[in-house]
Design brief:
1 helix; rod-shaped; about 45% helix; alpha+beta
Length: about 140
Amino acid sequence: MSPTTRQDAEEGFALAEILVAFAILALVCLAMLRAFAGSVETLQAVSAGEARMDLAERLLARSRATLHLAPGRQEGVADGLRWWTAVEALENERSPSPADGTPRLMRLRIGVGPLAPDGAQPPASLLTTLVFITPPDA
């Protein structure tokens, strides 16, 4: 075998090594791209969840600041999100009705979700708490 033939074979082998290295680099880059794309989607989901919770906390603070919260349901749209609040009396069948002017224990539920077409299901309950309500005539 002449020296030039062996050198030509080694040059071809170096080219094959470079091609394999580029293929491995391409696979690693693809895996990193997928990981970053997943991170962006996760970040967007967390941001949307924080926006919903922030609105729910503001609605809770507003409801607690109301002097005479009455049982019932309210709905609305704020910050591009659909929300609802529901106030329900907690009454036990075995206990007598409270006397007039006595604070009553009420359940306050708040739901916040993305805007949806009319007739769509309302968002699920996000926050639930108990509050004492003093009747207006007290």
